Amino acid sequence: MIWIEINKEEPIYQQIYVGIRDQILLGELREGDRLPSSRELAGTLNVSRTVILEAYDQLMAEGFINSKQGAGTFVESGALLESFQTSDVQLTYDKTACSINTPKNLIDFRSGVPCLEKFPRKKWGSIAKDVYENINPSLFGYHSPEGSEQLRNVLATYLYRARGIRCHSNQIVITSGATQAFTLLAKLLINSNTEVLIEDPVTKEIPEIFIERGARIIPIPVDQFGIQTDRLSSKRRKSIIFVTPSHQFPLGGILPIQRRIQLIDFAKGTNSYILEDDYDSEFRYSGQPVSSLQGLSPEQVIYIGTFSKILSPSLRIGYLILPISLVEKVKNLKRYTDYHSPTIEQVILAHFIQHGHLEKHVIQMRKLYKRKRDFLIACLKNEFGNLIKIHGASTGIHLVGEFNFKFSKKILDEIKENGVNIFSVEKHALVKGNHDNKLIFGYGNLTEEELEEGVRRLKNVMKYTFLGR
Ligand SMILES: Cc1ncc(COP(=O)(O)O)c(C=O)c1O
């Protein structure tokens, strides 16, 4: 007789299938053994006959059993696996693992998260509905690796208007966020002899992507204006140069034109490419967004853009603007990586930009972020007075607060235990020891109440650790 313990969590058919399969693999049911009829087993286990038939069908399709007309269902030969052990892995899932929120009450100053509440759901949703209902069926098929032609055309026009970028749509390759753009470039341009001159500090993951390919990382220090280009002069070798000239991450400098020209001259003189990571410069709070480096030297600069900050990181849409000579190679790499990025999302985004919604959204968000930034600065000044110096607040959705104290990991952990998640610039430093007195305050996704409370909690911890009050 076959007995299987049926529980309420997993599908019944699955439990019966696994139960019989395991008994065969373990040799408890042997070649030629006759299985009970579906009616009989349904009665024994007190389940419907349909689920038994479903389980038998699956076992038959996988070759565990066979049915002989009129004689019944039998275990097939060769299905005993000597080393087989039933798995104790729980098929139930941890419901808390699906939570999309940070732990209750934790105020999270992590940088780079836009205001998720304000994602333009209605507009995006109505465009999405329209696109799904009306696009040509061919768009549900496979496409070329560079991405939607419609999006690339719209993007080329938008970028010229918004960022002074000079490019043809056939120089654009749509990627899965800027992160995939870095990975593709690393595969294309980096081998174990390549030197990468890179801003220090820099987003932690970026040099790691290059190191993975064997690059030799040469940190170039950053000051309040961005990369210190005069430090390049001694490195006159062909290399790759990584910069965030419109808004240095994390220190916030905006690279002045003199340094931009120096950078381009260096790249031309050494036959190097500059990777320009432009991740959030649409949010500039005085004057216009600064022009791109790419606009000054399209042959020397590879531009990397993303919709993670102006719209949402969950879209995973970024793009590369490449010198023509690199386009085909990058397209091939993209094809071998994931064929192409999801087409429908790209088409929705193309409509969103084409009908002016992106520019409207950016204007609204810029106002909102400016309010949040001013509020945060007021809170910081209120709590810390002249114990804090603010850096890099003119653009983007984070700023840096410099103190007279060092924030060790232990202290940051203590701050976290007191309800505030915050990182120091040191986390992103290549040469350690120069930036552990600076904290990064991401404010894009926090309300004014959270900003105020977060700064108050931070002050409370610091009062006992540093300020001695
Ligand atoms: C400076 C910088 N560039 C690029 C990215 C990557 O963005 P994504 O891969 O979401 O497009 C980040 C992520 O926060 C970043 O901080």
From TrEMBL:
PROSITE patterns: HTH_GNTR. The keyword Protein biosynthesis does not apply. Its cofactor is pyridoxal 5'-phosphate. It holds the Pfam family Aminotran_1_2. Transmembrane segments: none annotated. It comes from the Bacteria. Residues 10-78 form the HTH gntR-type domain. InterPro entries: Aminotransferase_I/II_large (IPR004839), HTH_trans_reg/aminotransferase (IPR051446), PyrdxlP-dep_Trfase (IPR015424), PyrdxlP-dep_Trfase_major (IPR015421), Tscrpt_reg_HTH_GntR (IPR000524), WH-like_DNA-bd_sf (IPR036388), WH_DNA-bd_sf (IPR036390). GO terms for molecular function: DNA binding; DNA-binding transcription factor activity; pyridoxal phosphate binding; transaminase activity. CDD domains: AAT_like, WHTH_GntR. Keywords: Aminotransferase, DNA-binding, Pyridoxal phosphate, Transcription, Transcription regulation, Transferase. In the C-terminal section; belongs to the class-I pyridoxal-phosphate-dependent aminotransferase family. This is GntR family transcriptional regulator.
